[in-house]
Structures are given as C-alpha cells and as structure tokens.
Amino acid sequence: MKDQFTSRRQFLRRSGAAIAFIPVAALTGNAFAAINPGMRTSMKYQDTPLGDKDCSNCIQFVPGKTAKDLGGCKLFPGDTEISPKAYCAAWVKK
Ligand code: SF4
Questions:
Q1: Neighbours of 13 (CB within 10 A)
Q2: Which of 25, 43, 51, 58 is the most buried (most CB within 10 A)?
Q3: How far apart are CA 89 and CA 16, in angstroms?
Q4: Closest C-alpha residue for ligand 1 atom 2
Q5: Ligand 1, atom 4: nearest CA belongs to which residue?
Q6: CB of 35 closer than 6 A to ligand 1?
C-alpha cells in the first residue's frame, strides 16, 4: 500500500501551503477572517497609511461593509483583514 505522502519533501510542501493561509478565526473569533502573510511580507504591507496613500484610495482595495470596516485586496488572495487605512508597495491611485 502506497503512503499518502510519497516523500518527505512533498509532505513539507503540503504542510507549508496549509500554514500559508493561517485562519485568523482562531485569534479573533471571526469565522471568516484570514490573512495572507506571504503577500503581506512581499508587498511590505503596513497597518498605517503612507502620507495620503492608503488602501481606501487604492484601485486594488475591496471595501468591507462600511468605509471603516476591514476589506480585501485584489492582489492578496484569501486576505479578508485589509485595513482601509493600511498601505503597501503595490498601491495605485484609484
Ligand atoms: S494593493 Fe496594497 S495599498 Fe492597495 S489595497 Fe492592496 S494592500 Fe492596500
């Protein structure tokens, strides 16, 4: 009988993929919240604006229910915790 994970490398690759999308639900109690730490790091995401540049005036931002609620970003798949007052290196004026 063949093992589900045919190699140690394959097991580690799958484990890493599972960890890449750490559900924030365990931390915040929000059942649908999640972050994308890989994209946040690579795009130098920060929770504060850079001057007058922030997510709320970026073309990539997907707003939450209200203007102050957390939303998403078209460039950060699976991330539902993007602050409208945050900023990253991929900012483009709306
Ligand atoms: S690209 Fe960056 S600045 Fe623009 S919405 Fe996404 S996280 Fe915010």
A1: 12
A2: 58
A3: 25
A4: 88
A5: 91
A6: no
Q: In this predicted model, what pLDDT tens digit does every residue of 20-66 receive, in sequence order?
A: 555 554 455 555 789 999 999 999 999 999 999 999 999 999 999 99
Q: Residue ranges of the domains in the chain?
A: 8-73
42 pocket-lining for ligand 1 (C-beta < 6 Å): no
Instruction: Evaluate whether 87 touches 53 at the Cβ level (below 8 Å).
Output: yes
Question: Counting atoms of ligand 1 from 1, which one is nearest the CA of 54?
Answer: 3
Contacts of 29 (CB under 8 A, 6+ apart): none
What pTM, to 2 d.p., does this model score?
0.70
Which of 35, 48, 82, 85 for a ligand 1 pocket mutation test, highest count of atoms within 8 Å of Cβ?
Answer: 82
- Would you say residue 91 has pLDDT above 90? yes
